Amino acid sequence: MSRAFIKESDGAELESLPEIVVSPHRNLVTTEGLRQIETALQRLEAGLSEARAAGDRATVARLERDLRYWRQRRATAELVPPTDSPVRVRFGSLVTLATDSGATLRYRIVGEDESDPRRGLVSYVSPLAEELLGCRLGDVVSLHDGDAEIVGIG
User: Fold this and answer.
1) Between these two residues, 144 and 108, which has the higher pLDDT value?
2) CA distances (Å), 140 to each of 19, 42, 99, 125, 131, in order?
3) Fewest C-beta in 10 Å: which of 25, 65, 71, 82?
4) Cα–Cα distances in Å, from 146 out to 62, 97, 109, 149?
């Protein structure tokens, strides 16, 4: 097949790669969250070296963009040390809830980048975390599908 009518890439498509939006909230992190940032940076830096060696400009552009985000997140990270026996729910707490239906739910309040609701990790700026922060054992909170009592804070 003739390549006479196939446009060669001039790199212009790379200019439209949008930056990753950085949250306006404080970058609070747990010890695990800080470790995740460091791991992401190492993985991206290794990938960038490989992409440069392979001459893969699109991957280089994506990885450089991702590195800008994660370097900024590392630079602004505020490590919040864990508390041995918290009396109130705070950042980093593992909160155990007993629902009206008899279910037990567990959520850890973490930084935005380490949030993973399916694993019970909720961002401290999420509505659920905002409902829980500052509460004590025995307090009742409103969830989207009913009320729940705080039965554990760790």
Assistant:
1) 108
2) 41, 42, 9, 20, 10
3) 25
4) 43, 12, 20, 10
Phi, psi of 108 (to 5 degrees): -105, 135
Other C-beta atoms lying within 10 Å of the C-beta of residue 96: 17
Average of per-residue pLDDT across 21-42: 97
* Exposed/middle/buried for residue 54 (C-beta within 10 Å: 0-12, 13-18, 19+): exposed
Amino acid at 62: R
Picking from 121, 39, 107, the residue whose alpha carbon sits closest to that of residue 73 is 39
Q: Which amino acid is at 46?
A: A
Q: Are strands 78-79 and 28-29 parallel, antiparallel or unpaired?
A: parallel
Does the model's pTM come out above 0.85? no
